[in-house]
Amino acid sequence: MIEQIAEQQHSDFYDAVIIGAGNGGLVAAATLAMKGAKILLLERHNLPGGFATSFKRGRFEFETSLHELCDYGPPSDKGSVRDLFEDRLGLDAEFVEVPEAFRLILTDPQEEINVRMPFGFDNFLDAIEKEVPGCRTSVKRFFDLGEDILSAINYIGKTKGNPDQNVLLKEHANFLKTAAYTLDDVQQALEIPEKARKILNAYWVYLGIPTSRLNFTIYTLMEYLYILRKAHIPKKRSHEYTTALDAKIRECGGKIEYNTKVEKILVENGKVVGVETSNGDKIKTNHVVCNASPTLAYNILIHPKSEVPEIAYKQVNARRHAIAGFVVYMGLDTTAEELGLKDYSYFIYDNMNTEELYDSLNKLEKPRVQASICLNNAIPDCSPPGTCIISITSAFQPEAWKDVKPEEYFKLKNKIAEYLIETFEKATGASIREHIEEIEVASPQTFAHYTGTYNGIMYGYEQDPWDSFLARLMTMYDEKYIDGLEFCGGFAGRGHGYGATLKDGETAGLLTLQDLIKKGELK
Amino acid sequence: MSKKDNEKFDITIKSPTRDLFAFTKIVPQRKKRIEKASSEPITSDPMNELASILHPKRQYLVIDEIRDETKSTKTFKLIPDLDSNTKELAYFRAGQYLSLKVKVNEVAITRPYSISSSPTDALNGFYEITIRKTDDGFLTPYIWNNWKVGTKIISSDPAGHFYYDNLRDLKNIIGIGGGSGITPFRSMAKEIAEGKLDIKLTIIYGSSEEDDIIFYEELKQLEKKHPDKIKVVIVLSCEEVTLEGCEQGFITADIIKKYVNIDTSSFFICGPQIMYDFVDKEISKFNLPLKRIRKELYGEVKDVLNLPNFPKEIAEKTFKVKVHIGNQTKEIPAVATETLLVAMERANLAPPSICRSGECGLCRSLLINGDLYVSPINDGRREADKKFNFFHPCSSYPITDLEIKIPRSI
């Protein structure tokens, strides 16, 4: 009816077009715009952020997917994300510290873990020693390895990805020697007691694969950085910093179009030559930064199909698509204090058999895994006085949902939400059900609907040792199949975390910039 | 923690040589895995497919039947337009609405209408919407003159949050309806009668004239057939009431108390703005927590002049608004007492809109220059949007000349 009129359409030439305004696309666009590149950022939804956004129901504004931003750090010990936001991007966005690392509650009757773990290594070691006497030395070695990994990665970063092999062997041997292994392999070698491993591995759900397959390096680095620099969250939900990025991009002369879905990445002779959108824009460019996954780029976006090399399909098919989120958002008409909820982040699992838990994500039944947050315990005034916000997150293999019919869908997701609420109530002793003033339940379908992510997937590709961020970074040049196309986002090099996608956005922006300069394309 | 406190330790997993060797094998092994993988393209994406069925961007519909409900009200039965890509209708939850896109005398506008048919009816290929004509309205006189069987209509996916949620609401629902605000309750009542919605619904329906009660016969029939599940109370505000079993006057706390147990019920309210003003005061006598009272949106605020802090001195003014959309810029007039959405619709520059009540955020736009008045009773902006000057044109009014950027149509 209200068709796009021709005068509204974009047809100019751009130095780079960024597809998708998720964490990665926003930072890539800001990075390029700040360096003077003429860029256009296209987003299919009407908001920036992708998964990193917020939504309102009644008098509540919910954080959509972020639990804890890793490696932001306090002002006295800035992490890489704070460096990026404050020093390099100059963003106008406020972050607050989360009060504790996590509370872990295992609900199987034979399990006896209900423990609150603090930030800071000494505190953490004291707490875990108290729970599991005698574990301190081995757990400390686990964190020592985390420190080794961070120092190796900083070194590799300083050499711009060309480390001296001798320095690596001499100074960073522990990093090299653990990189090919799983979390289980290394923890067994460290002889960490089983119960201590259960506590240490509480964050496994943030990476979403069993510890028997999960790359040691990525997990250990993440946990090390959480305990070292604490977790942070945006004061006004993620919509604050994503909108700050939107403002920064425009301030630097970048253009952003929402409600604009890229339908084709045009490729000729192996090189990007432009993009076409659902609104009829035909844009010429030699550079695309793609916040959409390689899965979608190679299978859907690149046009013509004959430009997609066979190896690109193989690369996608060799990888395992990760899990998708399921979230119950609740605005309650009582306070966290009245509910007796003291902590911000609750990991509630049946047990710590992560293989079994992971397998359970393939079934539409009572979830055995949840990571829940009480937002007010980090941001007391995030909701009106006398209320609080709780969100319960679980996950599924999207395939579990594939035969669900529309007429069953709403009842089914409420049933699963009800299970999650019951489990939360039983584990924490807080009666929340009677206080629900607003509730919204998001399934893999919901995330597909709002972000367009392939199959509703939140976590990109799984990080087994052969496809960990290290393996990806070591092969990033070999596996570049289209000239002028860089990837960022949850399916890109560093993986799916907020910190990872933000930093990947910068990398993709800088690589594009480098290419523009090298080819003499930047005016 | 610092390692310097302790001796430096060297990790060994299998053996020092094998551990280093394992590192050197990461890349070759990755290459081998990729080489061995299938080169078949991926063609299925079940979650995006489900999303497009539940939330189609647009639904292309055609009027299949028009029924006169009362002297002022018609029901339009809408089915998929077979000439379009709409082959099936999106399922919904009883109480949700459709936002219709209509061109009236060359001006394209949207209007939200609650679906009056049941969700099961959508599976069977139709929606019904029930519209009351308002003689001074913009759209309804046009509809009465122009909509016929066969007229094509474009709609959004089902939208809104005015539906029963078993995790939030009590099982006894008091549906307070006024005028055409009865429509979502008809949908709920039908779903109850079909055995698919497990609630007890007491409809308290305010109507101004005896011969203009929408769905009177039908609701009474449903009540008769399902006396344990559905109860209908008609409250007539006309001077003389001859209809049996009706209440006379307005929907007061006393009338409500007479028919339901307040302590075990959740309220759902849908009607014109004037009804909310009255019913709000009555329901406040029960001192209920907010979670027990849900209200449907009612579109743009009609009497903006009476809203708190509205600058009345500029009420007569018309401002210039420079609008950027896509690659285009246009200057349009906007009067102070009309929302910017309406101003843009008059100029055929409408950004996408669904709820027209400040809530859905679909029309979210950027204020580049100038100043706005945002209606405090339907200010649905996110916190950060306030900080970065984004606003919802459907709940915002110009108070100076403006420069704005609006989203493109979807």
* Dominant shape of chain A: globular
**What is the C-level CATH assignment of the largest domain in chain A?**
Alpha Beta
Q: Helical element count of chain A?
A: 19
Distance between the termini of chain B: 54 Å
Let me know the number of strands of chain A.
Answer: 21
Order of helices and strands of chain B: HHHEEEEHEHEEHEHEEHEHEEEHEEHEEE
Query: Quick check: average pLDDT of chain A?
Result: 96
Shape of chain B: globular
Per CATH, the architecture of the largest domain in chain B is 3-Layer(aba) Sandwich
Round the Cα radius of gyration of chain A to an integer and report it.
23 Å
Number of domains of chain A: 3
Mean pLDDT value of chain B: 94
Strand content of chain B: 25-35%
How is the main sheet of chain A built? 7 strands, mixed
Q: What order do the strands of the largest sheet of chain A run in, or round the barrel if closed?
A: 8-7-17-18-19-16-20
Task: Assign the structural class of chain B, choosing from mainly alpha, mainly beta, alpha/beta, alpha+beta, or little secondary structure.
Answer: alpha/beta
Tally of DSSP helical segments of chain B: 11
How many domains of chain B?
A: 3
Briefly note the structural class of the backbone of chain A.
alpha/beta
Contiguous low-pLDDT stretches of chain A (5 residues minimum) are: none
TL;DR of this structure?
The complex is a heterodimer of chains A (523) and B (410). With 523 residues, chain A is of the alpha/beta class.
Describe this structure in words.
- The complex is a heterodimer of chains A (523) and B (410).
- By secondary structure, chain A is an alpha/beta fold.
- Chain A has three domains: 6-56 and 237-320 and 465-518, FAD/NAD(P)-binding domain, CATH 3.50.50; 65-116 and 323-458, Polyamine Oxidase, Chain A, domain 2 (Alpha-Beta Complex), CATH 3.90.660; 120-229, no CATH class.
- Chain A has 19 helices and 21 strands.
- A seven-stranded mixed β-sheet of chain A has the order 8-7-17-18-19-16-20. A five-stranded mixed β-sheet of chain A has the order 1-13-12-11-15.
- In chain A, strand 2 (16-19), helix 1 (23-34) and strand 3 (39-42) form a beta-alpha-beta unit.
- In chain A, helix 3 runs antiparallel to helix 4.
- Chain A starts with 12 loop residues before the first strand and ends in a 5-residue tail after the last helix.
- Chain B has 410 residues and is of the alpha/beta class.
- Helices cover 23% and strands 27% of the residues of chain B.
- Chain B has helices at residues 16-24, 26-36, 46-54, 119-123, 140-146, 183-193, 216-225, 253-259, 273-284, 340-346, 383-387, and strands at residues 59-70, 73-80, 97-104, 107-114, 127-132, 152-155, 172-178, 200-207, 230-236, 247-248, 265-270, 293-295, 318-325, 328-335, 365-369, 372-374, 390-391, 396-398, 402-405.
- The longest helix of chain B is centred in the last third of the chain and has 12 residues, at 273-284.
- Chain B is globular and about 100 Å long.
- Mean pLDDT of chain B is 94; it is low at 1-5.
- Chains A and B meet through strand 4, helix 3, helix 4, helix 6 and helix 7 of A and helix 1, helix 2, helix 3, strand 3 and helix 4 of B.
